Amino acid sequence: GDSVTQMEGPVTLSEEAFLTINCTYTATGYPSLFWYVQYPGEGLQLLLKATKADDKGSNKGFEATYRKETTSFHLEKGSVQVSDSAVYFCARIIQGAQKLVFGQGTRLTINP
Amino acid sequence: ETGVTQSPTHLIKTRGQQVTLRCSSQSGHNTVSWYQQALGQGPQFIFQYYREEENGRGNFPPRFSGLQFPNYSSELNVNALELDDSALYLCASSLVPTGFETQYFGPGTRLLVL
After folding, report:
1. Contact at CB, A99 and B45, closer than 8 angstroms
2. Cα–Cα distances in Å, from A104 out to A22, B12, B24, B71?
3. Which residue of B has its CA nearest to A102?
4. Where does residue B40 fall: left (phi above 0), alpha (psi -120 to 50 degrees), or beta otherwise?
5. Can you point out the beta strands (E) in chain B?
6. CB distance from A88 to chain B under 8 Å?
7. Do the chains contact at A91 and B42, CB–CB below 8 Å?
8. CA A24 – CA A83 distance, rounded (Å)
9. From CA B21, how far away is CA B6, in angstroms rounded?
10. Which of A107, A97, A101 is nearest to A34 (CA)?
11. Contact (CB, 8 A) for A6 and A22
């Protein structure tokens, strides 16, 4: 069925390092894709989205490009900060249903 | 705007018991979705309520049920609790059923079943 697969974590980086968190999806058609972030003790927050192929979502220095050729939506940031430490979830809409399907999450820790 | 709130924050139950979790929607939002997030996993969709009616359901058994009230707050009820029901339960409210871009999540209720 339709699913989302993320790279396994945890990921630990030093401040100012380059970040990539991989996400691939299986789907029929071209679902809207999302990245959510979950900071400790807080609810999920929408970080960015892309609704069609070749769209680039961006927010807070994070970017992700919807690539239909590779069915991927990798999250990137050029220079991470300690405050970026959180769990990141890739997600997609299920066409015709009122729900999101999430990946398993990637825990990111940034050390000063 | 008060955001999405959930209560209680933590709960411990034993197998076979019943539990009710509560969610207050973001002001102006008429749609509430519930998700179960097991430890180390992504959230899984349980069901959605729109204007007090169930509007979509995931692969959860009937012992998971819900309600939405006229003020659009919501409850999730789980009967005959099982150990595998231990998880973080998230609710999310949105302006419309497919309004994922306007969807706000609450901080969750962590349920432990012993």
Report:
1. yes
2. 12, 24, 26, 33
3. B42
4. left
5. 5-7, 10-13, 19-24, 31-37, 44-50, 53-57, 64-68, 74-78, 87-94, 104-105, 109-113
6. no
7. yes
8. 26
9. 8
10. A101
11. yes
What does the block give as tokens for A90?
A: 């890739």
pLDDT classification of B23: cutoffs 50, 70, 90: very high
For B105, the closest of A44, A101, A105 (CB atoms) is: A44
Task: Report the pLDDT value the prediction gives residue B2, as an integer from 0 to 100.
Answer: 60
Dmax (CA) of chain B: 38
Give me the residues of B, 10-69, that contact A with CB < 8 A: 31, 33, 40-45, 48, 50, 55-56, 58
Q: 6-65 in A: which are within 8 Å (CB) of B?
A: 32, 34, 41-46, 49
Summarize pLDDT for B81-92 with one digit per residue, the tens: 999 999 999 999
Tokens of B56: 């979509």
Question: What region does A11 belong to: left with phi over 0, alpha with psi -120 to 50, or beta?
Answer: beta
CB proximity list for A11: less than 8 A, separation 6 or greater: A19, A21, A106, A107, A108, A109
